[in-house]
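Here's what a typical entry looks like (Phenylalanine--tRNA ligase alpha subunit):
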Amino acid sequence: MIEDIKKEALELIRSAKDSAAVERLRIRFLGRKGEISKILRSLKDLSVKERQTVGPVAQQLKKDIERLIQEKTAVFSKSIQQGLPGIDITMPGKKIKIGYLHPLTLIEKEIRGIFKAMNFSVVEGPEVETEYYNFDALNIPKNHPARDMWDTFWLQNSQQLTSDKEQLTKGQESKVKGQMLLRTHTSPVQIRYMETHKPPFQIIVPGRVFRYEATDASHEINFYQIEGLMVGKTVTLANFKFVIQEFFKRLFRSDIEIRFRPSYFPFVEPGLEVDIRCIKCGGRGCGICKDSGWLEVMGAGMVHPRVFEAAHYNPRDFQGFAFGLGLERMAMIKYNIPDIRLFYSGDLRFIQQF
Ligand code: DAH
């Protein structure tokens, strides 16, 4: 019988949910009319022999129950001290929600990592740019029709930003002449970097760019690019082909077929566009590649001599390749995202998928 009481008492005390429940159990077992007290009191009616066997067992049980009640009370009073009344701290904890990295952050990190492993340095430049760096120095003079390729956000009062003309040397003045703007591409950083560095070097330039355009599934007024530039005495398009092939191989973790198509950008000659075999259909033709089997992924070419001249290099001394790719486009291909506007929607259901 003592065994039964013991089992029941220990079980009930262990599963008590708050200090009131513990107190009720204390009274039930150890109170004046409690079950254990009754047994102890009834010892006197037993024979000496019986008393010798039952006595110590009942005493031990009393001690066990007292200890357990004490422990349980301590648990509850601790949680009360911490301002958590009645909370059983032995319960499993609640999962803490941690944030997610935006898919653009993820892909930029990955691309940085790939180029760093190929010995490229990561360089950044300003988002508010001068007309000189964004256009003129890149062989896009004011009345050149190529300026139509970049719909620009021009900044008002830009002359004030670049006043204090007296303090500028002639050379500096020409760079701030003209209006300020939000850069339409990351290419101006090519000039900024070359002005202060000597070849050989290889860099990538991740950054935010802006276009004054209507938005749709593949256009945003604000997006991200990664520019690449490698210059040396003997850098060729063959080097570019290897670097870019390796880049896609690592980004998509498989051998991706690429092709070059002739194209035009004022700051390269020859200029080209790089396509990759459609990731989705493998080239058979599908909605993603508009049945062409290829996906356009970047512009590139050999740096134009005028660009080297703008950076005060002698074009006879150096040559190199440049490229520019859209980060959203890469992420859309890699993660199968159908609409560029999703990146900027702020919808957590979108972000939580990555
Ligand atoms: N800046 C170009 C754009 O935004 C992309 C580009 C094309 C960059 C060719 C380059 C290049 O460096 O060589 O459309």
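The pocket of 3,4-dihydroxyphenylalanine is lined by residues 185, 187, 227, 265, 268, 299-301, 322-324 (CB under 6 Å).

More examples are in the samples folder.
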